[in-house]
Amino acid sequence: MADEILRRTPPAERTKVPGLSLRQYKAILRKDIVMELRTKEMVTSMGLYSLLTMVVYQIALSQSGSAFDPRTIAGGLLWLAFIFTSMLGLNRSLVHEKDQGCLEALLLSPVDRPVIYFAKASGNLIFLLIVETLTIPVFALMFLQQGGYGGSWWMIPLVLFAGSVGIAGVGTLLATMSVNTSGKDFVLTVLMVPLMYPLLLAAVSATSAAVLGGDGSISQFWSGIAGVAGYDAIMVLAAYALYEFVIGA
Question: For the chain, what are the domain ranges?
């Protein structure tokens, strides 16, 4: 891994203090994508977990009666599935790096720490979006048949992308922090769930407005999107600033 990044870095750049190198970013991101295409382990496990979560939700709500409209809680169910699915993928992405020695190789190579952060976060974002794309049709089939979909078609993709940016950005930092601990899964969950609360609150509000539609849904949707965007901007910048200290700890 380190040799590949060194080959992609011109000799003149190896001896000076590196900046946010696009060449290095592409090399790390390409490595993550190629590895996943070969094994398909992360996307497969995340996808199955998300789909099984939808099935469990459906079974749990099947006895609620015909008067109950599942669309009223569909947004919350969807984001709960995504947040726990993302933790599964985030753990795997960094554990593989640690077990195979890639993380140590990256630290020894002339790569800026923020470059590693953005490359890993981008890879996690891509994998999470793939899983979400596979989950949405199942979600619609199970929970949106009664009453239909009330919003415009572009609402769900927009809120999913905005929310996923925050999950991948903050989750990559937290997964890097927890990878060196003995209880990786437990530590990541304890750290991630409280920090994700503001994002989930805004994302669920926007998703519910998109699903239900009706009067006032547009204003509620944009209010939720503004909350998600504000969270993304603040937390991703904070993760960017802290990553150099976290990965070297």
Answer: 21-247
